[in-house]
Design a protein that fits this description.
Layout: H1 3-25, E1 30-37, H2 44-56, E2 65-72, H3 78-87, E3 92-94, H4 98-107, E4 113-118, E5 137-141, H5 144-158, E6 164-169, H6 176-190, E7 193-198, H7 202-214, E8 219-222, H8 226-230, H9 232-241, E9 246-248, H10 251-255, E10 260-264, H11 266-281, E11 292-293, E12 297-302, H12 303-308, H13 315-320, E13 323-325
Parallel strand pairs: 1-2, 1-3, 3-4, 4-5, 5-11, 6-7, 6-8, 8-9, 9-10, 12-13
Antiparallel strand pairs: 10-12
Helix pairs in contact: 2-11, 3-4, 5-6
Length: 326
């Protein structure tokens, strides 16, 4: 190659380098703020479901998306953590449930907020309606009010002779007061008296079971909340200690030893939530993304726990179970 041709070729390549570099630098890296209620180890499968959904849509962590995790140990910590995420100007805040959404909406009216298993988005005012959210918040709902009524019916079916049932609820969970009204109305039709026992801390939970035992309840409906979802082993232990069969919203509570659970498939909801994140990052406004409801509900029964409680689950109930743990 002649010297002049070589210099020309080299000059052309050098001119192309800045363009190539600029092309590489132009790849947008989106930042998702994840506002969770810990410990994080309790939510491994749900987080992986969200990540899997994002991967299916072409997002690769560390390349074109980055997730900033913030885990609260107590519900009263979520506001500060939400403020941290908002100050970082993340592109989307992922706040799975109503307990997470409430602090997130207090710190920002502009950053999009996506939820995955909100109990009552319309009732709590987080969206104007399911079809037209109207603000910066949208996602998927599991409608805890209707779900709690169904759980009470299932528990009564498992305990046909029970006339007093305890309800473990959390005053820090925004959706619980509405759910309580619904199950109170349903209890009259079922012919059972409800013993309401609030619990916002681990100590409260232990005390609540002692209270329900003194009140001679025969079973416990545990309303889904961050603390009840996070304290599966403790609740299973107290259930056996006090011989109080319990039904939960969260399937891992049964894996931990709880008697039964009836609730939405959280993994499915988190995976579907990734589509909301994707559409928002591509320019769709949250106000224009209708809230979708959970489509998969699972009834899980732990026969090993039933045996330990001296309880025989009716065959009709077992026949409807999506999974029976032997």
């Amino acid at each position: 190659m002649k010297r002049r041709e070589f210099i020309t070729l080299l000059s052309g390549a050098a001119a192309g380098w800045p363009l190539a570099a600029r092309g590489q630098q132009s790849v947008k890296v989106w930042r998702i703020g994840y506002l969770g209620f810990g410990p994080a180890s309790n939510w491994t499968s749900e987080v992986e479901a969200l990540r899997s959904g994002l991967r299916d849509l072409g997002y690769v962590e560390g390349k074109n998306i980055f997730i900033e995790f913030r885990w609260a140990e107590r519900a009263d910590q979520t506001l500060d953590l939400a403020a941290q995420l908002a100050s970082m100007n993340v592109d989307v805040i992922f706040a799975p449930a109503s307990t997470n959404v409430e602090p997130a909406r207090k710190v920002t009216k502009t950053i999009p907020i996506v939820f995955a298993n909100h109990a009552d988005p319309v009732g709590l005012g987080d969206v104007e309606s399911l079809s037209r959210p109207g603000g910066n918040i949208t996602g998927l709902s599991m409608l805890l009010t209707e779900l709690s009524v169904k759980q009470l019916e299932i528990l009564k079916e498992a305990l046909p002779h029970a006339t007093r049932i305890g309800v473990l609820w959390n005053s820090m969970t925004p959706s619980h007061p509405t759910a309580i009204k619904a199950i109170e109305a349903a209890s009259e039709k079922l012919g059972v008296e409800l013993v309401m026992t609030p619990a916002g801390t681990i100590t409260d939970i232990e005390g609540a079971f002692s209270t329900m035992t003194r009140e001679s309840v025969r079973g416990v409906l545990v309303l889904g909340s961050p603390i009840s979802n996070a304290q599966g082993p403790l609740l299973a232990e107290l259930q056996l200690k006090h011989q109080l069969p319990a039904i939960f919203s969260y399937r891992p509570n049964v894996d931990a030893g709880g008697l039964m659970s009836y609730g939405a498939d959280f993994n499915d909801l988190y995976r579907r939530a990734a589509t909301y994140v994707d559409k928002i990052l591509k320019g769709t406004k949250p106000a224009d993304l209708p809230v979708e409801q959970a489509s998969k509900y699972l009834l899980v029964v732990n026969l090993k726990t039933a045996k330990a409680l001296g309880l025989i689950i009716p065959p009709t109930l077992l026949a409807r179970a999506d999974e029976v743990i032997e």
